Amino acid sequence: MCLPLPFVLFLLIPCIPPAAASLSLLPYVQLDFAYFFKLAMCRSKCAQKYGAESEVQMLDGTKFVRMKLTSELHKCMNGCSPRKKAADEPSRSGMAFWNDSHSDSAKVGSSPASRIHVTCLNVRDGEAEGRLIVETSRQLHGEQFILQWKWQGGHWITASIENETVIPVDGFVSGNEYKFMITVVGANGRLGESLQSEWIKVPQEDRHSSPVDLSVSSSACAAGGVCAFLRWKRHPTDSCNYRINYRNSTMEIIRDITVDGSHFIHLSNLNFKTDYNVSIYALDGDFSRPLELAKSYFMTVSCSEVYGPGSIQCPPLPAESVGVVRLNSTQAFVSWMAPPNTSTILTYEISADVLPPCEKQPPTSVYANANNTSAKLPLPVDSKSCDILIKVVTFDLLGRDAFTERILHSSSQFLPPSISRYIPSIFYLIVPLTIALFIIILLVIILRLRSSWRNKSKSKKKSRAPPTFV
C-alpha cells in the first residue's frame, strides 16, 4: 500500500509504505496514473531481481507464495525515481529500472487477477473499514496492482500501488456506494485488461447480528491427521473479524480471525474420533463485543478411516469385554477380547490396585503375550474385604498404551477350588466347542434337507408311472 501524496512529492520521494498500513479513501486526493504505472513497472522489476518468496497460509488451509520485502528490495524500490546518484548497488538497479520503465503500454500478457471484490465491512459511527480481495488464477511473481476507486457520481481516483491480494481499506462513509478497479503491471508492462468490482453500498450499521447456518465436516488432512471445515454464507457487508471457539471434553481452543477471502475455515490438529462443540462469534473492528452467530456439533473421523485398520500410525485401542472372577483370597482370573488391531500389539499388562477406604498397598501386576486373552492375576495382600481396581493395559509396538478398567468388588464370591482350577481350560474350550456345535447343527440341517428332497423326488416318479391294466 502507498500513502497518497501530491504528485510533486513522488518525484522526490518514492512511496515505500509500511506492510501493515491500509488504503484510505480520500476523495480530494487525485494521483497521476501515468506516474504510478511507471513506478509499478519499476517495482515489479525490482521484485523479480531482489524479492524473496515466503509461504503464507490462508484460513482455508491453502498456501500461496508472496513476495517478501527484503532490505535489498526496499533499496531498489527507493531507487525507482529520477535520481542521479545512488549509494549502493540495489539503489542503482532501481534507478536503471526507472529509466527502463514507461508510463503505459499495450498488453504484454494475460492478467493473473480474475476477480476483485469487497469481502467485509466493519461499520461504526457512520464510517467503515473493510477488506478488498484480489482473486488470482496463478501464482504472483512480483506483479503490482494500481488501485483506483470511485463512489456514485464520481470519477476514478488513482489511490495506491499494491502487491498483496488482501488489501485493508478504511475511509468508507455509511450510505455511499463504492467501486474499485485494479490494473496489473509486470516487469514488462500491462498484464491484461483492468478489472472492476461490483458496486457496494455501505450500511448505516453492522450487519453481523443475524444468526447464520453453520456447516461442519471432518476428514483427513492432506498433511496427515484429522481436520474440520467450517462454512457459512457471508454477505460482503458482514463483519471482517470473527472468533472461533471449539472444544472437546478435555480442551478448549479460541481463535480470533480476520477474513481473507477463503470460502471456509480450516481447523487442524484435531483428535481422532472425538466429539467437538464449535461456536462462531462476530467481532467489531477492534476485536471486541463478541456476538454469537451459530453453534454446532461434530465428530471427527477415526484414525482407521484415515490410515486403514491396524495401521501403526494409529494409537492402540483398549481391550474389550474385560471380565474378572475372584478365584480365592489371593488370586483372580481376568479375561478380555483383543482389540481389532492385533498386529500392532506388543504385550498386555494386567494389574490390581486396592481402592479406598482400604489401606493403600503395593499394586500387583502380570504381563501377557499379544496372542493371549486371559491371565491369572495375584491380588494384593489382605485384600479379601476390599474393592480392587483391575486394569488391562494394551501396549503397541511403539510403546503407546490404552487401557480398560473394571472393579472387583469385595462382595464377589470365591469360586470353589474344584471349579477355579479348570477356569483357564474351560475358557480355552469355549470357542472351539462353540464352532464344533455350529458345524454339527449345520450338517444335520443339510442332511435333513437332502433327505426331504429325495423323498419328494421319489413321489414325483411314482405319480408319473403309467397305469397298469389287469
UniProtKB/TrEMBL annotation:
Q: Which residues cross the membrane?
A: 426-449
* UniProt keyword Signal present: yes
Report whether Zinc shows up as a keyword of the record.
no
Alphabetic keyword roster: Membrane, Signal, Transmembrane, Transmembrane helix
Q: Which InterPro entries match?
A: FN3_sf, Ig-like_fold
Q: What start and end residues bound the annotated signal peptide? A: 1-21
What protein is this chain from?
Answer: Fibronectin type-III domain-containing protein
